[in-house]
């Protein structure tokens, strides 16, 4: 009887040890079993890419939870530097002062070019103007050209709309078109590409600027310096208002946050770059 009890107890002990070993393998050593949790925030221009890529990535990686939000490039970069997100989406390059903040915190920033974009200058579809020079666009936003008849259009006041100061598209426009000169005080500042689209669509004298992926029937994209904003002209950099789109993260997050490297690799891979193109932007590969 005693011998049988010892045998039973020994069997239970072996079973518990074996089970513990299985659990250790599955949950401690099996990285593939870890839940992927990644947060992204930033540019409203890059937002459609981020949302579409993470949606497909999550479908293919069932144990993943990826959250994406907008707010502007500056907002996303600040959140990365604050440590509140894993990836910042940006439609402009990080500034030297932002790199200085990262350095002061011991962060090693990783810059990833995820797509190419052209900032399309758009007008109301009823406007007869089809082309402008970059200099004319600058003068419009500086308030030096105020009526469409001055550039071959109808006798109608120009209503210029742009983006707010948190926008990477605004930063790129200021650099590529305005030569860092301030726009006129009358330029309406809006918070997103969609807001610019809606405003220009509903204002016959309106002009605005948006990412290439946002151009649709609501507005008419103008030829600038004789070059139309298209996939080819953006890719070969002949369109004069072309730029890169970025994801920013840190070496620490790539190495230690499960899912960050996987998500970046997915975006830069064949499937991810196909999604970039489907969103109206130019793939980097």
Automatic annotation (TrEMBL):
The chain crosses the membrane at residues 6-27. GO terms for molecular function: phosphate ion binding. The keyword Transport applies. It holds the Pfam family PBP_like_2. InterPro entries: PBP_domain, Phos-bd, Phosphate_ABC_transporter. Residues 37-270 form the PBP domain. Keywords: Membrane, Phosphate transport, Signal, Transmembrane, Transmembrane helix, Transport. It comes from the Bacteria. One of its GO terms (biological process) is phosphate ion transport. PANTHER family: PERIPLASMIC PHOSPHATE BINDING COMPONENT OF PHOSPHATE ABC TRANSPORTER, PHOSPHATE-BINDING PROTEIN PSTS. NCBIfam families: ptsS_2. Involved in the system for phosphate transport across the cytoplasmic membrane. Belongs to the PstS family. This is Phosphate-binding protein. It comes from Haliovirga abyssi.
């Amino acid at each position: 009887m005693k011998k049988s009890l010892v045998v039973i107890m020994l069997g239970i002990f072996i079973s518990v040890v074996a089970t513990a070993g299985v659990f250790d393998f599955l949950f401690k050593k099996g990285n593939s079993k870890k839940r992927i949790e990644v947060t992204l925030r930033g540019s409203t221009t890059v937002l459609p890419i981020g949302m579409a890529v993470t949606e497909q990535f999550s479908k293919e990686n069932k144990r993943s939870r990826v959250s994406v939000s907008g707010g502007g490039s500056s907002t996303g970069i600040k959140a990365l530097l604050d440590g509140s997100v894993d990836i910042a989406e940006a439609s402009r390059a990080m500034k030297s002062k932002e790199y200085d903040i990262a350095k002061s915190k011991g962060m090693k920033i990783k810059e990833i070019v995820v797509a190419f974009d052209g900032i399309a200058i758009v007008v109301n579809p009823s406007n007869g103007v089809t082309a402008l020079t970059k200099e004319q666009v600058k003068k419009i936003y500086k308030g030096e050209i105020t009526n469409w008849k001055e550039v071959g259009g109808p006798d109608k006041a120009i209503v210029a709309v742009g983006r707010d100061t948190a926008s990477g598209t605004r930063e790129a426009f200021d650099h590529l078109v305005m030569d860092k000169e301030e726009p006129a005080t009358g330029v309406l500042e809006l918070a997103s590409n969609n807001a610019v689209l809606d405003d220009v669509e509903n204002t016959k004298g309106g002009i605005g600027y948006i990412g290439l992926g946002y151009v649709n029937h609501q507005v008419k994209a103008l030829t600038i310096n004789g070059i139309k904003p298209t996939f080819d002209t953006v890719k070969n950099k002949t369109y004069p208002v072309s730029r890169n789109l970025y994801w920013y993260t840190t070496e620490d997050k790539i190495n230690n946050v499960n899912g960050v490297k996987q998500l970046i690799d997915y975006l830069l891979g064949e499937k991810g770059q196909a999604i970039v193109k489907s969103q109206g932007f130019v793939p980097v590969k």
